[in-house]
Write a structure and sequence with these properties.
The complex is a heterodimer of chains A (287) and B (92). Chain A has one domain: MetI-like fold. In chain A, 75% of the residues lie in helices and 2% in strands. The two termini of chain A are 23 Å apart. In chain A, a hairpin with a 5-residue loop joins strand 1 and strand 2. The longest helix of chain A is centred in the first third of the chain and has 31 residues. Chain A has twelve helices and two strands; from the N terminus they run αββααααααααααα. A two-stranded antiparallel sheet of chain B has the order 1-2. In chain B, helix 2 packs antiparallel against helix 3. Classes of the chains: A mainly alpha (287), B mainly alpha (92).
Protein backbone atom coordinates (compact mmCIF):
# COMPACT_ATOMS: atom_id res chain seq x y z
CA UNK A 1 0.00 0.00 0.00
CA UNK A 2 1.21 3.48 -0.87
CA UNK A 3 2.02 5.56 2.20
CA UNK A 4 0.52 8.99 2.03
CA UNK A 5 1.54 12.07 3.91
CA UNK A 6 -1.67 13.51 5.25
CA UNK A 7 -0.04 16.55 6.81
CA UNK A 8 -1.18 18.67 3.86
CA UNK A 9 -4.67 18.59 5.36
CA UNK A 10 -3.42 20.84 8.17
CA UNK A 11 -2.88 23.58 5.62
CA UNK A 12 -6.55 23.38 4.67
CA UNK A 13 -7.60 23.94 8.26
CA UNK A 14 -7.59 27.78 8.22
CA UNK A 15 -9.82 27.79 5.14
CA UNK A 16 -12.11 25.31 6.83
CA UNK A 17 -12.42 27.62 9.83
CA UNK A 18 -13.10 30.58 7.57
CA UNK A 19 -15.77 28.67 5.66
CA UNK A 20 -17.29 27.53 8.95
CA UNK A 21 -17.73 31.09 10.11
CA UNK A 22 -18.83 32.72 6.88
CA UNK A 23 -20.90 29.90 5.38
CA UNK A 24 -21.60 26.93 7.59
CA UNK A 25 -22.73 28.67 10.78
CA UNK A 26 -24.93 31.24 8.97
CA UNK A 27 -26.35 28.36 6.93
CA UNK A 28 -27.25 26.42 10.07
CA UNK A 29 -28.89 29.53 11.45
CA UNK A 30 -30.96 29.85 8.29
CA UNK A 31 -32.08 26.23 8.71
CA UNK A 32 -33.10 27.03 12.30
CA UNK A 33 -34.99 30.15 11.22
CA UNK A 34 -36.82 28.27 8.50
CA UNK A 35 -38.87 26.24 10.98
CA UNK A 36 -39.70 29.11 13.32
CA UNK A 37 -41.54 32.41 13.49
CA UNK A 38 -39.98 35.48 15.06
CA UNK A 39 -41.29 38.93 15.89
CA UNK A 40 -37.91 40.30 16.91
CA UNK A 41 -36.26 40.42 20.34
CA UNK A 42 -34.64 37.07 19.60
CA UNK A 43 -37.91 35.29 20.46
CA UNK A 44 -38.73 32.30 18.30
CA UNK A 45 -41.87 30.16 18.00
CA UNK A 46 -41.92 26.70 16.50
CA UNK A 47 -43.67 26.65 13.15
CA UNK A 48 -42.65 23.28 11.73
CA UNK A 49 -42.61 22.97 7.96
CA UNK A 50 -45.43 25.46 7.34
CA UNK A 51 -43.22 27.98 5.58
CA UNK A 52 -41.91 25.38 3.15
CA UNK A 53 -45.39 24.05 2.45
CA UNK A 54 -46.79 27.55 1.93
CA UNK A 55 -43.95 28.59 -0.35
CA UNK A 56 -44.02 25.48 -2.50
CA UNK A 57 -47.71 26.15 -3.16
CA UNK A 58 -47.50 29.91 -3.58
CA UNK A 59 -48.04 31.45 -7.02
CA UNK A 60 -45.76 34.32 -6.12
CA UNK A 61 -42.85 31.90 -5.51
CA UNK A 62 -43.55 29.91 -8.68
CA UNK A 63 -43.64 33.10 -10.74
CA UNK A 64 -40.38 34.41 -9.26
CA UNK A 65 -38.72 31.03 -9.79
CA UNK A 66 -39.95 30.92 -13.39
CA UNK A 67 -38.57 34.40 -14.05
CA UNK A 68 -35.27 33.38 -12.46
CA UNK A 69 -34.93 30.32 -14.71
CA UNK A 70 -35.92 32.37 -17.76
CA UNK A 71 -33.30 34.99 -16.92
CA UNK A 72 -30.53 32.43 -16.33
CA UNK A 73 -31.51 30.49 -19.47
CA UNK A 74 -31.36 33.63 -21.61
CA UNK A 75 -28.06 34.69 -20.07
CA UNK A 76 -26.40 31.32 -20.70
CA UNK A 77 -27.87 31.02 -24.21
CA UNK A 78 -26.51 34.43 -25.18
CA UNK A 79 -23.29 34.82 -23.21
CA UNK A 80 -21.68 31.42 -23.81
CA UNK A 81 -21.87 31.35 -27.67
CA UNK A 82 -21.16 35.08 -27.86
CA UNK A 83 -18.18 34.76 -25.52
CA UNK A 84 -16.72 31.88 -27.55
CA UNK A 85 -17.27 33.80 -30.80
CA UNK A 86 -15.49 36.90 -29.48
CA UNK A 87 -12.64 34.79 -28.09
CA UNK A 88 -12.22 33.14 -31.51
CA UNK A 89 -12.15 36.52 -33.22
CA UNK A 90 -9.54 37.98 -30.88
CA UNK A 91 -5.90 38.13 -32.10
CA UNK A 92 -3.57 35.47 -30.62
CA UNK A 93 -0.38 37.49 -30.94
CA UNK A 94 0.83 41.04 -31.51
CA UNK A 95 0.17 44.37 -29.86
CA UNK A 96 -3.61 44.17 -30.10
CA UNK A 97 -3.74 41.27 -27.67
CA UNK A 98 -3.27 43.43 -24.59
CA UNK A 99 -5.64 46.10 -25.93
CA UNK A 100 -8.35 43.50 -26.46
CA UNK A 101 -7.76 41.90 -23.06
CA UNK A 102 -7.96 45.24 -21.24
CA UNK A 103 -11.10 46.23 -23.15
CA UNK A 104 -12.68 42.89 -22.27
CA UNK A 105 -11.75 43.16 -18.61
CA UNK A 106 -13.13 46.71 -18.22
CA UNK A 107 -16.84 45.89 -17.69
CA UNK A 108 -15.96 43.35 -15.01
CA UNK A 109 -14.06 45.96 -13.01
CA UNK A 110 -17.19 48.05 -12.50
CA UNK A 111 -19.08 47.37 -9.25
CA UNK A 112 -22.51 45.82 -9.63
CA UNK A 113 -24.50 48.71 -8.21
CA UNK A 114 -22.68 51.15 -10.49
CA UNK A 115 -23.52 48.96 -13.50
CA UNK A 116 -27.19 49.06 -12.46
CA UNK A 117 -27.16 52.84 -12.02
CA UNK A 118 -25.27 53.36 -15.29
CA UNK A 119 -27.75 51.33 -17.30
CA UNK A 120 -30.65 52.95 -15.54
CA UNK A 121 -29.57 56.40 -16.70
CA UNK A 122 -28.33 55.11 -20.07
CA UNK A 123 -31.73 53.67 -20.98
CA UNK A 124 -34.10 56.32 -19.60
CA UNK A 125 -36.26 57.44 -22.55
CA UNK A 126 -35.83 61.19 -22.16
CA UNK A 127 -32.33 61.75 -20.81
CA UNK A 128 -30.49 58.47 -21.42
CA UNK A 129 -28.35 58.21 -24.53
CA UNK A 130 -29.65 54.80 -25.57
CA UNK A 131 -33.23 55.45 -24.44
CA UNK A 132 -33.37 58.75 -26.32
CA UNK A 133 -31.84 57.20 -29.44
CA UNK A 134 -34.32 54.32 -29.56
CA UNK A 135 -37.34 56.49 -28.81
CA UNK A 136 -36.61 59.64 -30.76
CA UNK A 137 -34.26 58.59 -33.57
CA UNK A 138 -35.43 55.05 -34.30
CA UNK A 139 -38.96 55.98 -33.22
CA UNK A 140 -39.48 52.70 -31.38
CA UNK A 141 -41.39 53.11 -28.12
CA UNK A 142 -39.03 51.86 -25.43
CA UNK A 143 -39.41 52.58 -21.74
CA UNK A 144 -38.13 50.03 -19.25
CA UNK A 145 -39.98 51.71 -16.39
CA UNK A 146 -43.35 51.12 -18.10
CA UNK A 147 -42.99 48.15 -20.41
CA UNK A 148 -42.08 44.69 -19.04
CA UNK A 149 -40.53 43.54 -22.32
CA UNK A 150 -38.33 46.63 -22.46
CA UNK A 151 -37.33 46.00 -18.83
CA UNK A 152 -36.37 42.40 -19.67
CA UNK A 153 -34.42 43.42 -22.75
CA UNK A 154 -32.57 45.98 -20.62
CA UNK A 155 -31.61 43.66 -17.75
CA UNK A 156 -30.51 40.91 -20.14
CA UNK A 157 -28.49 43.35 -22.28
CA UNK A 158 -26.93 44.80 -19.15
CA UNK A 159 -25.85 41.38 -17.91
CA UNK A 160 -24.52 40.43 -21.34
CA UNK A 161 -22.52 43.66 -21.41
CA UNK A 162 -21.22 43.09 -17.89
CA UNK A 163 -20.37 39.40 -17.91
CA UNK A 164 -19.78 38.12 -21.45
CA UNK A 165 -16.15 39.18 -20.94
CA UNK A 166 -15.75 36.49 -18.31
CA UNK A 167 -16.65 33.80 -20.85
CA UNK A 168 -14.42 35.55 -23.43
CA UNK A 169 -11.39 35.66 -21.15
CA UNK A 170 -11.77 32.06 -20.00
CA UNK A 171 -12.34 30.79 -23.55
CA UNK A 172 -9.39 32.85 -24.77
CA UNK A 173 -7.16 31.32 -22.10
CA UNK A 174 -8.30 27.89 -23.32
CA UNK A 175 -7.66 28.81 -26.95
CA UNK A 176 -4.13 30.16 -26.52
CA UNK A 177 -3.11 27.05 -24.63
CA UNK A 178 -3.71 24.85 -27.72
CA UNK A 179 -0.31 23.91 -29.22
CA UNK A 180 0.28 24.92 -32.85
CA UNK A 181 0.87 21.29 -33.81
CA UNK A 182 -2.89 20.66 -33.68
CA UNK A 183 -3.60 23.42 -36.19
CA UNK A 184 -0.77 22.25 -38.44
CA UNK A 185 -2.14 18.70 -38.42
CA UNK A 186 -5.63 20.04 -39.20
CA UNK A 187 -4.22 22.08 -42.09
CA UNK A 188 -2.44 19.04 -43.56
CA UNK A 189 -5.68 17.08 -43.36
CA UNK A 190 -7.50 19.96 -45.08
CA UNK A 191 -9.91 20.46 -42.20
CA UNK A 192 -12.52 23.20 -42.54
CA UNK A 193 -12.79 26.03 -40.00
CA UNK A 194 -15.84 24.36 -38.53
CA UNK A 195 -14.00 21.04 -38.16
CA UNK A 196 -11.10 22.79 -36.45
CA UNK A 197 -13.53 24.42 -34.04
CA UNK A 198 -15.60 21.29 -33.44
CA UNK A 199 -12.76 18.75 -33.03
CA UNK A 200 -9.82 20.81 -31.75
CA UNK A 201 -10.84 24.10 -30.18
CA UNK A 202 -14.09 23.10 -28.49
CA UNK A 203 -12.73 19.92 -26.81
CA UNK A 204 -9.64 21.83 -25.67
CA UNK A 205 -11.82 24.59 -24.22
CA UNK A 206 -14.07 22.14 -22.41
CA UNK A 207 -12.53 22.57 -18.98
CA UNK A 208 -12.52 26.35 -19.01
CA UNK A 209 -16.01 26.38 -20.50
CA UNK A 210 -17.22 24.17 -17.66
CA UNK A 211 -15.94 26.75 -15.21
CA UNK A 212 -17.36 29.62 -17.28
CA UNK A 213 -20.82 28.06 -17.53
CA UNK A 214 -20.84 27.15 -13.83
CA UNK A 215 -19.80 30.64 -12.78
CA UNK A 216 -22.29 32.30 -15.11
CA UNK A 217 -25.05 29.98 -13.95
CA UNK A 218 -24.44 30.59 -10.26
CA UNK A 219 -23.92 34.32 -10.70
CA UNK A 220 -26.96 34.89 -12.89
CA UNK A 221 -29.13 32.61 -10.76
CA UNK A 222 -28.17 34.55 -7.63
CA UNK A 223 -28.12 37.96 -9.31
CA UNK A 224 -29.55 40.75 -7.18
CA UNK A 225 -27.83 44.13 -7.24
CA UNK A 226 -27.92 44.99 -10.93
CA UNK A 227 -31.61 44.33 -11.68
CA UNK A 228 -32.56 45.73 -8.26
CA UNK A 229 -30.84 49.04 -8.98
CA UNK A 230 -32.01 49.07 -12.60
CA UNK A 231 -35.69 48.16 -12.33
CA UNK A 232 -36.30 47.44 -8.64
CA UNK A 233 -38.23 44.34 -9.78
CA UNK A 234 -40.70 46.36 -11.84
CA UNK A 235 -42.68 47.39 -13.74
CA UNK A 236 -45.17 45.56 -11.52
CA UNK A 237 -43.46 42.31 -10.68
CA UNK A 238 -42.18 41.62 -14.17
CA UNK A 239 -38.49 41.58 -13.29
CA UNK A 240 -38.82 40.45 -9.67
CA UNK A 241 -36.30 37.64 -9.77
CA UNK A 242 -36.05 35.11 -6.95
CA UNK A 243 -33.32 37.04 -5.12
CA UNK A 244 -35.24 40.32 -5.30
CA UNK A 245 -38.37 38.63 -3.98
CA UNK A 246 -36.30 37.03 -1.22
CA UNK A 247 -34.92 40.38 -0.10
CA UNK A 248 -38.41 41.89 -0.21
CA UNK A 249 -39.69 39.14 2.11
CA UNK A 250 -36.66 39.14 4.42
CA UNK A 251 -35.90 42.85 4.75
CA UNK A 252 -39.02 44.58 3.40
CA UNK A 253 -41.59 42.53 5.29
CA UNK A 254 -39.12 41.21 7.90
CA UNK A 255 -40.62 37.72 7.54
CA UNK A 256 -37.45 35.89 8.49
CA UNK A 257 -39.04 32.43 8.68
CA UNK A 258 -40.48 32.33 5.14
CA UNK A 259 -37.36 34.08 3.83
CA UNK A 260 -35.17 31.40 5.42
CA UNK A 261 -37.30 28.64 3.92
CA UNK A 262 -37.09 30.35 0.54
CA UNK A 263 -33.29 30.68 0.84
CA UNK A 264 -32.98 26.96 1.50
CA UNK A 265 -35.11 26.03 -1.51
CA UNK A 266 -33.06 28.51 -3.55
CA UNK A 267 -29.88 26.88 -2.22
CA UNK A 268 -30.84 23.30 -3.06
CA UNK A 269 -31.82 24.35 -6.58
CA UNK A 270 -28.45 26.06 -7.11
CA UNK A 271 -26.69 23.07 -5.59
CA UNK A 272 -28.49 20.53 -7.80
CA UNK A 273 -28.02 22.44 -11.05
CA UNK A 274 -24.34 23.17 -10.32
CA UNK A 275 -23.74 19.54 -9.41
CA UNK A 276 -25.51 18.32 -12.56
CA UNK A 277 -23.54 20.72 -14.79
CA UNK A 278 -20.26 19.75 -13.19
CA UNK A 279 -20.95 16.02 -13.19
CA UNK A 280 -22.18 15.91 -16.78
CA UNK A 281 -19.32 18.01 -18.12
CA UNK A 282 -16.56 16.15 -16.28
CA UNK A 283 -18.10 12.68 -16.61
CA UNK A 284 -15.88 11.58 -19.51
CA UNK A 285 -12.69 12.79 -17.81
CA UNK A 286 -13.38 10.87 -14.61
CA UNK A 287 -14.32 7.66 -16.35
CA UNK B 1 -23.86 31.80 23.57
CA UNK B 2 -25.69 30.05 20.77
CA UNK B 3 -28.98 31.81 21.49
CA UNK B 4 -28.75 33.94 18.36
CA UNK B 5 -28.64 30.81 16.22
CA UNK B 6 -32.18 29.95 17.37
CA UNK B 7 -31.50 26.22 17.71
CA UNK B 8 -34.35 23.75 17.95
CA UNK B 9 -34.00 20.05 18.71
CA UNK B 10 -35.33 18.85 15.32
CA UNK B 11 -32.88 21.01 13.36
CA UNK B 12 -30.07 20.04 15.74
CA UNK B 13 -30.82 16.37 15.04
CA UNK B 14 -30.64 17.00 11.29
CA UNK B 15 -27.13 18.43 11.64
CA UNK B 16 -26.05 15.81 14.17
CA UNK B 17 -27.20 13.22 11.61
CA UNK B 18 -25.28 14.80 8.75
CA UNK B 19 -22.10 15.30 10.77
CA UNK B 20 -22.24 11.75 12.19
CA UNK B 21 -22.63 10.40 8.67
CA UNK B 22 -19.54 12.37 7.65
CA UNK B 23 -17.74 11.06 10.73
CA UNK B 24 -18.62 7.47 9.85
CA UNK B 25 -17.34 8.04 6.30
CA UNK B 26 -14.10 9.44 7.71
CA UNK B 27 -13.62 6.34 9.86
CA UNK B 28 -14.37 4.10 6.88
CA UNK B 29 -11.89 6.10 4.80
CA UNK B 30 -9.19 5.62 7.45
CA UNK B 31 -9.83 1.88 7.55
CA UNK B 32 -10.24 1.44 3.78
CA UNK B 33 -8.57 4.36 1.98
CA UNK B 34 -9.42 5.19 -1.61
CA UNK B 35 -13.07 6.15 -1.13
CA UNK B 36 -14.35 2.85 -2.56
CA UNK B 37 -14.64 4.41 -6.02
CA UNK B 38 -16.73 2.48 -8.54
CA UNK B 39 -18.84 3.00 -11.60
CA UNK B 40 -22.51 2.84 -10.72
CA UNK B 41 -25.79 2.47 -12.58
CA UNK B 42 -25.95 6.17 -13.44
CA UNK B 43 -22.70 5.83 -15.37
CA UNK B 44 -20.89 7.95 -12.83
CA UNK B 45 -17.77 7.06 -10.93
CA UNK B 46 -18.69 7.70 -7.32
CA UNK B 47 -16.91 7.46 -3.99
CA UNK B 48 -18.61 6.93 -0.62
CA UNK B 49 -18.70 10.71 -0.11
CA UNK B 50 -20.37 11.26 -3.50
CA UNK B 51 -22.98 8.67 -2.61
CA UNK B 52 -23.73 10.43 0.69
CA UNK B 53 -24.03 13.74 -1.15
CA UNK B 54 -26.40 12.28 -3.75
CA UNK B 55 -28.43 10.67 -0.97
CA UNK B 56 -28.79 13.92 1.00
CA UNK B 57 -29.53 16.08 -2.03
CA UNK B 58 -32.02 13.56 -3.37
CA UNK B 59 -33.71 13.34 0.04
CA UNK B 60 -34.13 17.14 0.11
CA UNK B 61 -36.00 16.96 -3.19
CA UNK B 62 -38.09 13.98 -2.10
CA UNK B 63 -39.24 15.87 1.00
CA UNK B 64 -39.80 19.15 -0.84
CA UNK B 65 -41.75 17.47 -3.62
CA UNK B 66 -43.95 15.63 -1.11
CA UNK B 67 -44.54 18.81 0.90
CA UNK B 68 -45.48 20.73 -2.23
CA UNK B 69 -47.84 18.07 -3.58
CA UNK B 70 -49.34 16.34 -0.51
CA UNK B 71 -48.18 18.36 2.52
CA UNK B 72 -47.55 16.89 5.98
CA UNK B 73 -47.16 14.27 7.53
CA UNK B 74 -43.85 13.19 6.03
CA UNK B 75 -43.61 9.49 6.94
CA UNK B 76 -44.00 8.30 3.36
CA UNK B 77 -41.24 10.56 1.93
CA UNK B 78 -39.07 9.55 4.88
CA UNK B 79 -39.44 5.92 3.80
CA UNK B 80 -38.75 6.89 0.18
CA UNK B 81 -35.67 8.89 1.23
CA UNK B 82 -34.31 5.95 3.28
CA UNK B 83 -34.91 3.66 0.31
CA UNK B 84 -33.18 6.20 -1.97
CA UNK B 85 -30.20 6.28 0.40
CA UNK B 86 -30.01 2.49 0.37
CA UNK B 87 -30.18 2.49 -3.42
CA UNK B 88 -27.43 5.14 -3.65
CA UNK B 89 -25.01 3.22 -1.44
CA UNK B 90 -25.88 -0.07 -3.10
CA UNK B 91 -25.98 0.76 -6.82
CA UNK B 92 -24.98 4.34 -7.65
Amino acid sequence: MKTQNNRAWLFVLPVLLLVAFNALIPMMTVVNYSVQETFGNNLFFWQGLDWFEGLLRSDRFHAALGRQFLFTGLILAIEVPLGIAIALAMPRQGGWVSVCLVLMALPMLIPWNVVGAMWNIFTLPDIGLLGYFINHVLNIPYDMTQNPIAAWVTIVTMDVWHWTSLVVLLSYAGLVSIPDAYYQAAKIDGASNWAVFRYIQLPKMKNVLTIAILLRFMDSFNIFTEPFVLTGGGPGNSTTLLSIDLVKIALGQFDLGPAAAMSLIYFVITLLVSWLFYTLMTKDDLN
Amino acid sequence: MLGWMAWTWPTAFVFIGIFSAMGVLTLLEIRNPGGDARKGVLGLTTTRGDRLFITLLGSCYIFLAWLGVFGTPLWVPLAIAVAWGGFCFWKV
